[in-house]
Amino acid sequence: MASTAPETTWHDVARGVALPTEAFIDGAYGPSIDGATFTRTNPATGETLATITECTSGDVDRAVSAAARRFASGEWRDADPSERKRVLLRFAELIREHSAELALLETLDTGKPIGQTTTVDAPACAATIQWYAETLDKLYDEVAPSGKGSVITIRREPVGVVAAVVPWNFPLIITSWKIGPALAAGNSVILKPAEESSLAGIRLGALAAEAGIPAGAFQVVPGRGHVTGEALGLHDRVDAIAFTGSTEIGKRFLNYAGDSNMKRVALECGGKSPQIVTRDCADLDGAAEAIAWSIWYNQGETCHAGSRLLVDSAVRDVLLQKVQARMATFEPGHPLDPDTVMGAMIGADHLDRVQGYLDSARSEGASVHGGDRVEHESGGAYMRPAVITGMTNDMRAAREEIFGPVLSVIEFDGLDEAIGIANDTHYGLAASIWTDRISDAHRAAGELRAGTVWINCYDQAAVATPFGGYKQSGIGRDRSLHAFDKYTEIKTTWLEL
């Protein structure tokens, strides 16, 4: 699907797009064995979007059997790295060729603005697959130090059948973070998209097959978490689970692994990321701009959203004035309008949940600015950005992951107090500090318990850098060469001469 012509709107294209709704198992699309389905609602309108196949335990078993069979055959596992590279590069190119279609499917599913899915999400998916493809003929195994009488090699081997369970907030991007290295390593991969955002993931199945990935080496099993996700987590022939989502569900996957075959579990489970603005930050305009985008981009539905603003009392009033002045630029609009910056929330239930945090903050004595519901002419689930002031770090809205466009503001006096507040959380995904004192920047970066610390910026990212968290933000890392750790076994071979 090409980009829309000037006289054609995305609304027009959406009315004619084919929605992929069936599971992709063993190289072909088809319904569930027992005919199970679930309904997806368009978050922009509140109307039914699609009826999608739900893979139950029998379908999961069929997919796992196909994956295990393909892995045992060695066709993908043992292919020369240059051959896997060629196929994955073709996969990336096909994603680019179909990027407008994939972006539209993601926008329809999630309510994300089309201007963002076309320029960020779909291109990033292709770029990540390409990056991992290009690593394949550049990765070396090791030879351990030994005496002349021995040769000791240390090699990476694929772990086997990998289930990738991805969330609804960045479906294409997070899918690529998981299937890119898992496929590159030679595994058979089963993708389970979130029930709220299945369409683009389902479409990837056909593109992977067209690229030359063998039947069974990449499959897509849509369904609800407590049905399809649980079946994958408990399956004795799934060798590894890579999950991104809530801490609550991440803990369930750890239990599933213990109750089944002790499968490897890699988790990215969100955060409550602090942004520290010190009195020594001269560029408060730059800080305000980054803070606004960090929490209101993607409707605040971002795992590493900068949701806690920790600001020195000396600059609090000036900074807040600058942040709140930017709220109007994030007025919610229809996701298919190219100029929309903030689209619809993922659904009405989630909108109610986010609004509940605003009510909780008011009841605890904090002040809420903005955050009102928007009655959009299309229907759907919309709300304006919110800022909560007068907060302490023990309040519910300061401790729990809201996953919405809500910024919690907490004052501090001195860097030591700020670092203590920042680390007083169950999470540790990301953090930032804004300061012109280089010594404070380095000290904070060393003391903040987070997987990523940004200094005088926020949400800078590259596939070459690892992403993941401390504490209950997860186990393991997505992106970079470190991602291969989740999808490979390390084998030592000791040869006596």
Q: State the CATH architecture of the largest domain.
A: 3-Layer(aba) Sandwich
Given helix and strand content, the structural type is alpha/beta
What spatial form do the alpha-carbon principal axes imply?
globular
Strand content: 15-25%
Helix content: 25-40%
Q: Count of DSSP helices?
A: 16
Q: How many DSSP E strands?
A: 20
Spans of 5+ residues with little confidence (pLDDT < 50)?
Answer: none
User: Averaged pLDDT, please?
Assistant: 97
Radius of gyration, taken over Cα atoms and rounded to an integer in Å: 23 Å
CATH superfamily of the largest domain: Aldehyde Dehydrogenase, Chain A, domain 1
Question: Keywords for this structure?
Answer:
497 residues; alpha/beta; Aldehyde Dehydrogenase, Chain A, domain 1; Aldehyde Dehydrogenase, Chain A, domain 2; 2 domains; 6-stranded mixed sheet; 38% helix; 19% strand; globular
Written overview of the protein:
By secondary structure, this protein is an alpha/beta fold. The protein has 2 domains: 10-269 and 473-493, Aldehyde Dehydrogenase, Chain A, domain 1 (3-Layer(aba) Sandwich); 274-460, Aldehyde Dehydrogenase, Chain A, domain 2, CATH 3.40.309. It has helices at residues 10-16, 57-73, 81-97, 99-110, 114-135, 171-184, 199-211, 225-234, 247-259, 284-296, 316-325, 348-363, 396-399, 415-423, 438-447, 484-487; strands at 23-25, 28-30, 37-41, 48-53, 142-144, 150-158, 161-165, 188-192, 218-220, 240-244, 264-268, 274-277, 308-312, 367-370, 386-389, 406-412, 430-434, 452-455, 474-475, 488-496. The strands form 5 sheets. It has a 7-stranded mixed sheet with strand order 14-15-16-13-12-17-18, with helices on both faces. Helix 3 (81-97) runs antiparallel to helix 5 (114-135), helix 3 crosses helix 7 and helix 5 packs parallel to helix 6. The termini are far apart. The mean pLDDT is 97.
